[in-house]
Specification:
Layout lengths: L2 H13 L5 H13 L6 H8 L4 H12 L19 H4 L2 H7 L1 E6 L3 E6 L5 H11 L2 E6 L2 H13 L16 H4 L8 H9 L1 H16 L4 E6 L4 E7 L2 E4 L8 H11 L11 E9 L2 E12 L2 E10 L14 H11 L4 E6 L6 H12 L6 E5 L9 E5 L8 H8 L6 E4 L5 H12 L3 E6 L4 H11 L3 H7 E13 L5 E2 L4 H6 L8 E2 L11 E12 L2 H8 L4 H10 L5 H10 L5 H7 L5
Helix pairs in contact: 2-3, 10-12, 11-12, 15-16, 18-20
Amino acid sequence: MAGETRKKLGEMLVEDGLIEESQLEEALSIQQTGNERKFIGEILLDLGYLSEEGLSLTLSKKLGMKYVSFSDKSMIINYEQGLEKLVSQQFATDNMAVPLSKTDRYLSIAMWDPLDFMVVDNLKQLTKMDLVIHCSTKTDILDGIDRLYVKKGKVEEEEAVSVNTSKEEKDFFSTADDLDTLKSKAAEAPVVKLVNQMIDEAVTKGASDMHIDPREDRLSIRFRIDGKLYEMETPPQEMQAAIISRIKILSRLDIAEKRLPQDGGFNLKVNGRAIDFRVATLPTIYGEKIVIRLLDKESIKMDLDTIGLSKENYERILANIDKPNGLVFVTGPTGSGKSTMLYCILNKIRSGSKNMMTIEDPVEYRMDTVNQVHAKANIGLDFARVLRAFLRLDPDIIMVGEVRDLETAEICVRCALVGRLVFSTLHTNDCVGTISRLLDFGIEPFLLSTTLNLVIAQRLARKLCTKCKTVIHLEKETIDKYGLEGVQVYGPVGCDVCDNRGYKGRMAIFEVMSVDEHLKSMIEKKTDMVDIRDFLLSKGLKTLRDDGLEKVKQGLTSLDEILAITMGTS
C-alpha cells in the first residue's frame, strides 16, 4: 500500500474508534524513522493497538471489498477445483493470498494486502483469469494455505462454493452514487478488464497520453499519438464512474475527493515492457477528467549521437557541455522533448569522476552514477530549497527540471558563478526568447551575460510513414519561398502500418545558440531582442524552421508539418 493511502487508513481507524489519535501519531513516527518500510496497519498490530480482524474489516470497508473469515464460515475453499495447481503454495505464502474458488473466467481470492497491485497483476498474469478479491486476516490466510496445500482431504467437510453471478454483479452497470458501491464496482472484473484493455491499446499504438473526458451524453476516450489527439472507441457511459474510480485506485488517489484536482501515478508491465503512468484529475461540469501520461522508459534511447542533430549543432553542443561551469538551457513548449534532451546530455557527459545531481518533478528516468532528487513542494522540498542544499554537497554538474521563478533562476546563476555546470529547461519559443525570459524574471544582465553558455530550442515533428508517403507537387511560389528548388518533397497518405494517419513516430528539430563574447556584450547592454536575433542570423544561426526544412529535403517529414510546428517562431 502507498504511504498516503495507508495514512488515510489510519485516519479511518481513528474515526471508527479502533485506535486513538495518539496511537496513530506514534505509528506514523515509527513508520517515518524505521529502517524497514511497513504500512500503518502492520505497525499498529506490532504495537498491540489493533487486532488483525479490526484492520481487515476497516480495509474491506475502505475498499468496498467483502471481508471473509473461517470464524463466521464466510471463508470457504473449494478443494475440488485444483486451486493448488493454479496458484503455488510458495506464491500464496510469499504474498499472503489464498485462492478460494474459481469459474471459467473468475478466480476468487482472499488477500491480506489487496492494495498490493503488483501481487494483483502478477496473479492475473499467472492465472490468466479475472480476480474477485476479498479481504482477510493474515491468520485466516495462513490457515487457508495450510488447509489447501498441506492438509487437503483431511480437513472437516466444508461447503464448496463457486463465484456465481449475484444480483450485485447483474446490476454492475447501474448508476453508483454510494461511495462503498463505487469502490466495489471499481474492483470488479469488467471494469478492471476494460481499463487494462485501454492501457494495452494505448501502449500498442504508441500513445504518449490518454485523455478520459466525461461529456454530457458519453465518456470520450482519446489518445495522443505523435502529438495529435485521436478519438478511440467509446465505452458505455454508465461505466464512467467505475472507470474513473479504478484509475484513481491504481494511482493511489482519493476516490471520495471529486471537487479538487489530484496527481498520482502507477507502473505496470505491458507487453513485457515496464511503463510508468502519471495521472492527473480535474473536476469538470460532467465529472472528473483524467489525463494519463505514459512513460515508456525502454523505448527512449538517451543517445545524443542519434537524436537527429545536424553536424553543426552537434559540435556546438559538445563544445559547451564539456565546459566546467555556466548555464545551458533547453527550451520549448510542453511535450517538445526537453527532458529527453537533458537526459541525452547527462548520459553523454556522466562519469564516476564527477558529482552529478538533479532535482526533478518527477524523476522520469533513473541514471546510474547520478544523484537524483524528486521535488515535493507539498512538504517544502521545492527546486529552490534543494538547489541551496546542492551547493553544500560539492557538485560538479547540476540539472534542474525547470526554472519557474526568479528564486530558482537566481540560484542557478549563483551555482554557475561558483564553478558549477548547470542544465535546465524553460518554456520559450526560441533561443532569443530564453534571454528575454530570464531578464524578465529579474536576472541582472551582467550576471546572465557572465554565466549563459548555450541555449537549445526544439520541437517534435511527426515523421512520414515510410510505407505510404508519396511525392507531392508544390506551387513555384512555395518552392522559391522555402528553398525547395530541385527537391523531391513528400506528403502523407495513410495505410495499415500507420493506422491511416500518414505519419508514424516523431523526431526533433533544433535551434542551437552558443553565447560568444559579442553576444555576451549585447546581453549586458540590454540590446533589443530583435537586434540580437538579426545578429545571430547574420552569424549563420539555423532556426527551428531551417532545421525542419532540412528534414523535409531529406524526405523525413512534410512541409505542412514543419510550417505548423514552427508557426510563431521568428
